[in-house]
Amino acid sequence: MKHLKLRLLLLSLASGLLFSLAWPEKGVPVLLFIAFVPLLRMEELISSNREKFNRFSVFFWSYPGFFLWNLLTTWWIVNSTGQGAAMAVLLNAMFMSIVFAFFSGTKRRLNSRPAGYLALVCYWVMFEYLHLNWDLNWPWLNLGNGFASYSHWVQWYEYTGAFGGTVWVLVANVMIFSILNGEMVNRHFTILLTILLPIAFSYLLYYTYKEKAWPVNAVIVQPNIDPYSEQYVLPPQQVLGRIMSIAGTALDSSTNILVTPESALQQEMWENELETFESIKLARQIITKYPGLNIILGGTTFYAFRPDEKIPHTARKFTQEDRWYNRYNAAIMVNSHPQIQTYHKSKLTPGVEILPSYNGFKWLEKYAIDLGGIVGSLGTDSVRKVLQVVSMPPVAACICYESIFGEFFAEFVRNGAQVMCIITNDGWWGNTAGHRQHFSFAHLRAIETRRSILRSANTGISAVIDQRGDAHQQTKYWVPAVIKTTVNANDKITFYTAHGDYIAFWLSWLGGLLYLGSLGVWVMRKRI
């Protein structure tokens, strides 16, 4: 028994290591196609020795592998918050182990390998879908993201989104495990069909895709403001002055848009009276010089609710007044239009920007992780806003963490955005894999929507990403920089943009039916 347990542990850890070695931005994604194989072997050993194990054994023995994967790929969170890193690694590994245990239970109750492996695909997709759509979202390790640094392999994401990659990985693992178990014939044909054919199709799409000429002249600024020692200390006017001194070398009368990073302006700006703040006045002065320019500024804003307005659950009460207000992580558009436009970040970072704040859970606000700026649950927008611009095609700004969410990102495009911006501040994690992984995920968003992306990061990586997902003019980390570029707008809607995460939706329904069916079979057997 001791030898068997050691074998189970080694198999679990082998999977964790394979996942880690496959992960962006320096991983080899082909390893994803075999990463589940040791875990599947571990599950089979437990199932075939059921008398030696209890119903929770698959959960306990899969946990070390999933923990290792989470630890080796997302340890860098500790640079911003040790508490957040521990929670992310421990909880996400637990969720993955629960999913794997549910698959094992379904396979056992149905007494069918094919049905069990179908359940694995459905349950894992359900888990990833949940991780995109609940408040404690953490889709960083969704399997489809594993090809972010090899975007030439997944050009077909324009049809499937990243969930196509998740299904690809899971099906390939089941196929390869079945081949190793001697359960499948025509091995070479199977591998060709499941792995090489999608890659070949992707390269065909890559080399045949041509951007339509629709030029937009842009300037992207990377001001390199230290988020720990400068960002929340320097006067906003000084920060904006630094941004404009860097941008000034590239701006001219032909520039359509200037993009600055997330949270560039840290001033208590009330949206009820934005025009009164010095930072906005300075931006207006720049527009006077360049009337055809559109400026996207990242900042913190507040909004005081009128007595007749509905008060959202994220609102906070003024300490000395019977009034309520919201705080936002915002993208601010300044141009020659008379009204300043704002978009509020709506996919919030768990533990930093969002905590349960409904009745009965408001007390959790005091445990929010403080990264030096606004703390606790923020307000959001219910609509993915396309910003009104002058002298250029419609544009939208996606803020930081939002760029991991494929269907969410596609909503901006569905609403009319023909050029996309990503504004972010990745300096919290230091010069680790964290900011490089985050950058690589943007390649997938460009492919899914076939939109050019202007990415402005406070400390790097800033870049231009074209409609095939190729990055150009990448800046170095922790170096002030400016990018002057011309990108093409696009008004075509991809299949994925139009239909969103349809794969996850339907597989989640199928997974629910499989689970209910397995429970029904189990109940019937109990009655016999």
Q: Give the rounded overall mean pLDDT.
A: 92
**Quaternary status:** single chain
Give the topology string: H per helix, E per strand.
HHHHHHHHEHEEHEEEEEHEHEEEEHH
Spatial separation of the terminal alpha carbons: 33 Å
> What is the tally of beta strands?
13
User: Which CATH architecture of the largest domain?
Assistant: 4-Layer Sandwich
CATH top level of the largest domain is: Alpha Beta
Shape field: globular
Broad structural category: alpha/beta
Radius of gyration: 25 Å
CATH superfamily (homologous) name of the largest domain: Carbon-nitrogen hydrolase
The percent of residues in helical segments reads 40-55%
Number of separate structural domains = 2
CATH topology grouping of the largest domain = Nitrilase/N-carbamoyl-D-aminoacid amidohydrolase
What does this structure look like?
- The protein has helices at residues 2-22, 37-48, 57-74, 82-110, 113-133, 157-160, 162-180, 187-208, 236-247, 278-289, 406-414, 433-449, 495-499, 502-527, and strands at 215-222, 257-259, 265-270, 294-304, 316-317, 324-334, 341-344, 395-399, 419-424, 453-457, 463-465, 471-472, 481-488.
- The two termini are 33 Å apart.
- The protein contains 14 helices and 13 strands.
- The relative contact order is 0.13.
- It folds into two domains: 2-208 and 501-527; 215-489, Nitrilase/N-carbamoyl-D-aminoacid amidohydrolase, CATH 3.60.110.
- It is an alpha/beta fold and 528 residues long.
- The strands form two sheets. Strands 1, 2, 3, 4, 5, 6, 7 and 13 form an eight-stranded mixed beta sheet that branches.
- Residues 357-374 have low confidence and may be disordered.
- Helix 2 runs antiparallel to helix 3.
- The chain is globular, with a radius of gyration of 25 Å.
- Strand 8, helix 11 (406-414) and strand 9 (419-424) form a beta-alpha-beta unit.
- The chain is 43% helix and 14% strand.
